[in-house]
Design a protein that fits this description.
268 residues; alpha/beta; 11 helices; binds 3-methyl-2-oxobutanoic acid; single chain; TIM Barrel
Length: 268
């Protein structure tokens, strides 16, 4: 992949055809987005996980459309190459396709993002079609859909049972037929995810969905080890930033208290 070429929804389809895996990470602010775009990430997701990791809410339900637009605007300013996808937050699209369209238009117009993502299958079909009618690319999200946590009651693996697995497969096909350019599958059995990915033309990005899909996504705070308390089986941690940052801050405090900082060279 040419480092300079901008990633589009079309690029992702080409990557699937060529068997090249797609890399995706979340970002919610300018500095983090700059680093991951510069590192060569294919897709930056301004996820509604911002509700948890940026705002400290227990669920993703609390974040508002205005707050998502604020995060997305900062991310878009930093990104030169990646495709920027923004989550439609809870309450901004469910059950009302006109509102779904208005929310998507606000995200695209006010932040400059490239696509939106929403959760659900057949129940959001009308919303997906309406958003697409305005030329806004849509990414689907099936399996564990955190905006429905109070319906599920738990964050355990979804679609282990045949009935739910069958419904998920059908929903994935409905989303593809509606025109979604990609689908995220969250926390479902790897065999099912692989089966869905190989039966669809559009790329399937997994999180806790095994290796048989077309790409992987993680929440950046989880993969950098900024969150200490979250350690599901699917998470690979690449750093232990919580302890590294804590150690650095403790050293800084110590240097101030001991009058070591600032030294002669660090003053005017
Ligand atoms: O909000 C988010 O971070 C997400 C990913 C977990 C896919 O939707």
């Amino acid at each position: 992949m040419d480092e300079k070429r901008r990633i589009t929804t079309h690029t992702l389809q080409e990557m699937k055809k060529a068997g090249e895996k797609i890399s995706m990470l979340t970002a919610y602010d300018f500095s983090m987005a700059r680093i991951i775009d510069d590192a060569g990430i294919d897709v930056v997701l301004v996820g509604d996980s911002a509700s948890n990791v940026m705002a400290g809410h227990e669920t993703t339900l609390s974040i508002t459309l205005d707050q998502m637009i604020y995060h997305a605007t900062s991310v878009v300013k930093a990104v030169k190459r990646s495709l920027v996808v923004v989550d439609l937050p809870f309450g901004s699209y469910q059950g009302n396709s006109k509102e779904a369209l208005n929310s998507s238009i606000r995200i695209m117009k006010e932040s400059g993002a490239h696509a939106v993502k929403l959760e659900g299958g057949r129940e959001v079909k009308e919303s997906v079609e309406r958003i697409l009618s305005a030329g806004v690319p849509v990414m689907g999200h099936l399996g564990l859909t955190p905006q429905s946590i109070y319906k599920f009651g738990t964050y355990v693996v979804r679609a282990r049972e045949e009935e739910e697995a069958k419904r998920l497969e059908e929903d994935a096909h409905i989303l593809e037929e509606c025109g979604c350019f990609s689908i995220v599958l969250e926390k479902i059995p790897a065999t099912l995810a692989g089966k869905v990915a190989s039966s669809l033309r559009i790329p399937v990005i997994g999180i806790g969905a095994g290796s048989g899909v077309d790409g992987q996504v993680l929440v950046i705070h989880d993969m950098l080890g900024i969150n200490q308390e979250f350690h599901p089986r699917f998470l690979r941690r690449y750093m232990s930033l919580y302890s590294d940052m804590k150690n650095a801050v403790q050293k800084y405090i110590q240097d101030i208290k001991s009058k070591d900082f600032p030294n002669q060279k660090e003053q005017y």
